[in-house]
Amino acid sequence: MKTGKFNNETILIRHSAGSPLILSVLENINIKINKAILVAGFSKPLNKNSERILQNKYDWNKIKNNIKEIIFINSDNDPWGCNDVQGRYMFDKLGGKLIILHGEGHIGSDTYHQPYKKFPLLKKLLTPV
Question: What pTM did the predictor assign?
């Protein structure tokens, strides 16, 4: 946070456990960034290990004020629980866009033999209209 430089053109993208990091960054900066995309993200505990990653609570209003656009991409069958329910929870708190993929598991997980060499949806979301 001390050396990071954020501005109104900043775009943050993270997968899985990187999503709580984005939420924390957005809560602690003092500028509105352009966009954040959380892929297979979560903000509620999944298990005992995930509790170490999450904050006890989030200031949803501050996060919302520091982001121009936020997009959540979750699958309906994520084996680790980073599923559509988690995506809906964050969406309900922050608004933005919620994209639910059907049958995509943990969206790119090598553990579940889903390596994404390309992610055209992500490219599309980054392309200006």
Answer: 0.91
